[in-house]
Amino acid sequence: MTRDLYLGIDTGGTAVKYEVAAADGGTLGGGEVPTDPGDVAATLRALAADAAPLLGGAALPRLAAVGMACAGIVNPVTGHLGRSPNLPGWENSDLGGAVSAAFGGVPSALANDVNGALYGEYRHGAGRGCRDVVMIALGTGVGGGVVVDGKLLIGSHFGAGEIGHMVLDGDGPPCTCGSRGCLEAWAGSTGLLRATRELVAAGGASAALAGLAASRGAELTTRDLAELAEAGDPAAIGVFAAAGRKLGQAVGNLVNVLDPDRVIIGGGVARAGDLILAPCREVASRLILATEARHLPIVPAELGPRAAAVGAASLAREKAREGA
Amino acid sequence: MTRDLYLGIDTGGTAVKYEVAAADGGTLGGGEVPTDPGDVAATLRALAADAAPLLGGAALPRLAAVGMACAGIVNPVTGHLGRSPNLPGWENSDLGGAVSAAFGGVPSALANDVNGALYGEYRHGAGRGCRDVVMIALGTGVGGGVVVDGKLLIGSHFGAGEIGHMVLDGDGPPCTCGSRGCLEAWAGSTGLLRATRELVAAGGASAALAGLAASRGAELTTRDLAELAEAGDPAAIGVFAAAGRKLGQAVGNLVNVLDPDRVIIGGGVARAGDLILAPCREVASRLILATEARHLPIVPAELGPRAAAVGAASLAREKAREGA
Q1: Does any CB of chain B come closer than 8 Å to the CB of residue A158?
Q2: What is the domain class of B5-120+305-323 according to CATH?
Q3: Contact status, residue A271 vs residue A302, Cβ threshold 8 Å
Q4: Is A159–B257 a contact, with Cβ atoms under 8 angstroms apart?
Q5: At the topology level of CATH, where does B131-301 sit?
Q6: Tell me, which fold does domain A130-301 have in CATH?
Q7: B257 vs A162: CB contact, 8 Å cut-off?
Q8: What does the pLDDT look like over A142-184, one tens digit per residue?
Q9: What is the pTM of this model?
Q10: Nearest Cβ partner of B156 from A155, A168, A261?
Q11: For a disulfide at B142, which of A290, B1, B90, B188, Cβ 3.0-4.6 Å?
């Protein structure tokens, strides 16, 4: 049987998602199994069993290579996983070796989680056809990644892409990292919800927003806020616009340094769409110096929560080609 | 006669500097001729005549390739020079073709001026032995450049490296580009001198600094300021420290995104040395997330005004190797 399929795995603290892809990148399907944060081998055994039907049977005869996107400090050259707070039994280990071993010795490729998602979007999503891409993922925190000339930017200490901690105003709101005024403090969901509560506390919110914040309390989400904004509430619109303008400052700064052909905005907060992207584009285009770059596409991610597994499968495919 | 020498040219609005380098990068010497901003061919003829003794005679028999660093928007792939405000007779032309033609048809390599200086430092100066380097040039304005994995970062629209226009505080001082709070508005000499005059006008300067500002008037330079600071004047020290802290914010932001192995600070303002570099390092190390990157070397440039010509000669050498 030909080894013609590629397995992409996205490891999170609670679940491990996977995609099985063909040589042309098309997906054959996927699934997920629970993560055992204390035991890499047990997690991968369960995943192999779950994916076996797509891979030709229990011996995985069609599997050519495995890619894994994993939260933490990942050395993509050696396959070593360094610090990874949500995976205590996985960190500081030869994860690439463990992955190969769990899947019959096929080659493995590793990336951190945001780079995995970026690579998925770059090859099969919102970044298709580009050479230089910046991605910003607006989740609880804010992550990021950069593709330069078709390759993931890794950095000298495997630390590149920390776009969320670009300081946009040294007197800005406090960030979880200990600094003030990081992009994350404005445009991550934690920061955005904190700004909302401060607005309500200061009496600057609409009655509808104040009521929503009171009724949802600690359960308030950016999805709730987006629904209110989409219904036309000016205070909720204003909260997204403020975050979007700071995002635009970050995008402008990044485009001036990196001059990519596209910027992709992903993560849960980005589901607010033009509520956050329109003010972002407005500020970015004002800050970008190179005339030709001033109206570069700043677009939402397309692959949603599948992105990192799709990207990991692409990295696996390239790893196999390098070896061939 | 073997074609074993490389000519590196640094084109400015008033003078064209050159260096002649051997295959090992060692310099055989250099010189400069006046720029004719209206006539590329005349400028290059004069330069060829001036450099001929180093290159084996009037027919330049030892010349293997020419590199040119040039202010403006440079397409290093095609050799096209786009906008270049100080070189009205040069802009929007096939500069690479003109350079090759002026030097007997040898291969030519082009870069913008800051990238030329960065490449010189990377190959033969403060960046020797690194793979990923960021350079910030603190002149009247602030320029910058990035080497990723041994290659100059050019960008999709030949606009990468505009580090000087990273907005560090949207409410900061006005910048020549029309934005507010760009790095350049704090750490370029124009911005630094403006901050000094504002300090004097507000009565916050020492008597010595106020006296210096009054006596030098519009002729005040950052060199004057540095001398006063080196003599221990706290107000002058404070002016450099404020610029250095903003430089540190920019460096921290850049290291978080790019994770280089070294940051080089060049340009006239950087001659103030630790007056500006010490506060820069202090802020940057506080902002950098990756533990391993937190104490990366942030060092002064080494090649001074020769850097861009040295870098252009290196680019010529690589161009000749590519062709071989």
Answers
A1: yes
A2: alpha beta
A3: no
A4: no
A5: Nucleotidyltransferase; domain 5 (3.30.420)
A6: Nucleotidyltransferase; domain 5 (3.30.420)
A7: yes
A8: 999 999 999 999 999 999 999 999 999 999 999 999 999 999 9
A9: 0.95
A10: A261
A11: B188
